[in-house]
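hey can u check if this looks right to u? its 311 residues, i copy pasted from the old doc so theres a chance i mangled smth
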Amino acid sequence: MNNFNFGEVLTRAWQIVWKNKVLWIFGILASCARGGGGGSGSSGNSGYRTGSEDSPFSTNQFEQFAEQAKQFLENNLWIIIAVTVAIILLSLLAYFLGMMGRIGLIKGVSQAEKDMTLSFGEIWAESMPFFWRIFGLNFLFGLAFFVLIVPMVILGVVTAGVGFLCFLPLICILIPLGWVLSIVIEQAQNAIVLEDLNVLDGFKRGWQVAKANVGPMLIMALILAFGGGILGVIIALPIIITVIPLAIGAAAMKEVLTPIYIALACCVVYLPVLIFLNGVLTAYLQSVWTLTYLRLTQPKEEIPLIIEANA
């Protein structure tokens, strides 16, 4: 559609999110499925004394380390299993909450657009029937990505990097293709929830809407990618400011752990703020996509054609 009003959609999405604070909760839940586990692995070399050896680990030290690791696994096997199971369960719970948050945002925005009063309990209850459909859609998309990428990674590792060079043209094609497919998936999710479709019909409908409105879809995706990326960096800026100097000066600190403790304390204090702001941002981005779908699929007002009778 050539007359698609991007400014109206972006403004209306913010008005809905600001007026209906319950969408912030669903935004926080939806952000759980977007990933973002910040692994802060601190690898500090404590300076092994190896005499005149150039290697930081001698053969004896490596064997000693392997033996200690083996003994640790044997002595703490059940603890490791319990922690692994807990991580898996928490990951599944986070993914479930993320899917429900995404569905709830689509439902809530569509209701807010009709000036309906939003209730967390009602939106949650109305979102439940769509969980397995949205889960199935994202699972199939993730499975297809897994099937394509993992063999390339394995072959690249086995061939010491030569395989990556062979797959480089294919990777260059897959990156924009994956981006376009993510836009189709976004529309398919809206189709499933707003039009009560199954997974296959929802994907077909999402593809149909995206194909019929290539220009607005690509422009909106670029706006949200750049705008959302900039806002995401701003939100995470306190963490970045705290961690980057610490990482740069890690080698000079050696065994001084006080700066690390201070940085971790700052991150922990800011974490609730980060989760909240990221949830509001997620709610806004999803609201924009939902309104985009509604604007592009709502029927036009038909102009009556008046045929004058010949005298």
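The chain has one domain: 6-32+63-297.
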